[in-house]
Amino acid sequence: MASPAGDRLPPIIMADYARIDSGLNQGTPYLCMLCGIDRLSNWDGLTADAVRARKAAWTDRLVGAVDAAFPGFAGLVVQHEMATPATMHAVLNTPGGAVYGFAPETLVRSPRTAVPGLYLASAWAAAGGFTGAMIGGASAARAALRN
Ligand SMILES: Cc1cc2nc3c(=O)[nH]c(=O)nc-3n(C[C@H](O)[C@H](O)[C@H](O)COP(=O)(O)OP(=O)(O)OC[C@H]3O[C@@H](n4cnc5c(N)ncnc54)[C@H](O)[C@@H]3O)c2cc1C
């Protein structure tokens, strides 16, 4: 995501929220998300205008890529937003702009801390993502109840 120039595209996942019972797509406009891999350093040190221009260029390329797979898609887009690792870092305060928690380099994670009675929940305390956040919350609650 450092530069939208050239032909190369990062791998992207498209989620059509109309396909699951998310409650997000009750009527038009329908929500659709493209998700890919990026680094905070790709967006560091840019002026606001440069960020806007790069987001616009990437949006054109990504929507174009989806349109190539699903002809007609681009013409149906009525509004678009792009969030970067810098957005995640600014809004969620996550290290490096990550959204799935810390790198899963160990399988031994515990909600317990060095402070008696203080337990950690979230995707940052167990495994990443929604599932990790739910598992982290459940194991913190179990540990607290055991005490
Ligand atoms: C666009 C997008 C799509 C995603 N899709 C999926 C998916 O399909 N499947 C999946 O499993 N995961 C997905 N994820 C990841 C998932 O959303 C997160 O991993 C999960 O929500 C993390 O939950 P959490 O409770 O650990 O942290 P968060 O939901 O980040 O909650 C932490 C909260 O703490 C607040 N906070 C931070 N610092 C402070 C502070 N100093 N003081 C007070 N409050 C603070 C933040 O503002 C935030 O509200 C997606 C994420 C994004 C951004």
Secondary structure category: mainly alpha
Placed side by side, the strands forming the largest sheet appear as: 1-2
Low-confidence stretches: none
Count of helical regions: 4
Taking all residues together, what is the mean pLDDT?
A: 90
How much strand content do the residues show? 5-15%
Fraction of helical residues: 25-40%
- Write the element-wise H/E pattern from the N-terminal end onward: EEHHHH
Largest sheet, if any?
2 strands, antiparallel
- Count up the domains: 2
Secondary-structure map:
Layout: E1 12-16, E2 32-36, H1 48-69, H2 73-76, H3 85-92, H4 129-146
Antiparallel strand pairs: 1-2
The structure holds flavin-adenine dinucleotide.
The site of flavin-adenine dinucleotide has 15 residues, from strand 2 and helix 4.
